[in-house]
Amino acid sequence: NGSFPKKNRPLQIINDAEYIICCDGAANSMYKTNKEADIIIGDLDSIDSKYLKNVKSQTISIENQNDNDLRKALNWIAKNIKVKKITIIGITGLREDHTLGNIASFLYNKYDFEIEIITDTGHFYIIREFKTIQTSIGQPISLFCIDEKQRITTEGLKYKLENDSINLYNATLNIAEKEQITISLKLDVPVLVYLYCENEKN
Fold first, then answer.
1. How many H-runs (helices) and E-runs (strands) does the chain carry?
2. What Cα–Cα distance (Å) separates residue 166 from each residue in 13, 103, 169, 186, 187?
3. For position 47, which CATH number holds?
4. Do 105 and 185 lie in a common domain?
């Protein structure tokens, strides 16, 4: 139940998607775009009953209250679908507790598929190995990790990391000095990378 995107890029991703999975109440927003989800996953407590009567979406009810609907969906995908990459839209905005819970999910859980998160103001990448990312010179970039045993080396950032450890706050607000940056990791521990992109035309 994050903010439904308004910018062209996330909306285009939704429009071009071959397969759409909605987390519970997000299906309400999807329905307003005249596009249906293939699957709706969650405890199904936030979906408009009128919506369910008018769509052909498969619904999967998972009652476990120890996981939020996003983690339920990710865990279901990991067990049931062979996929190399997923793009997630609409996990931020509206309620801050939902936003924090959603983002924290990627720092505590590892999945065998690549995950990219697109919002109206930026891109999140969850990386567990060497990664090259296309950037713009001067673009703000932040890195987050919960395991200080992880060691990170970067190229192309103003404040370079050289086999350094980071936490949830001491690697934020960096700046790209090249149109391509690289991030190398020592351990198979998730690192969250955020690129601020609000000034993009799309």
1. 5, 12
2. 32, 17, 8, 13, 13
3. 3.40.50.10240
4. no
For residue 10, the SS3 value is helix
Asked if 166 and 143 count as a contact pair (C-beta separation under 8 A), the reply is yes
For 144, how many CA atoms within 13 A lie in the half-sphere containing its CB? 17
pLDDT one-digit tens code per residue, 35-52: 889 999 988 888 887 777
**Residue 96 and residue 36 share a domain:** yes
**Can you read off the two tokens belonging to residue 18?**
């071959």
Residue 1 included in any domain: no
Residue 127, strand partner residues: 191
The one-letter amino acid at 30: M
Residue 154's alpha-carbon distances to 33, 121, 180, in angstroms, are: 40, 23, 11
What is the rounded CA–CA span in Å between residue 142 and residue 127?
13
Tell me: do 22 and 89 sit in the same domain.
yes
Query: Residue 176 is which amino acid?
Result: A
pLDDT digits (tens, 9 = 90+) for 52-80: 777 788 999 998 888 888 999 999 999 99
Number of domains in the chain: 2
In 3D space, the residue among 91, 85, 48, 39 whose CA is nearest the CA of residue 70 turns out to be 91
- Which range marks the domain in which residue 142 is found? 126-196
pLDDT, average across residues 89-104: 90
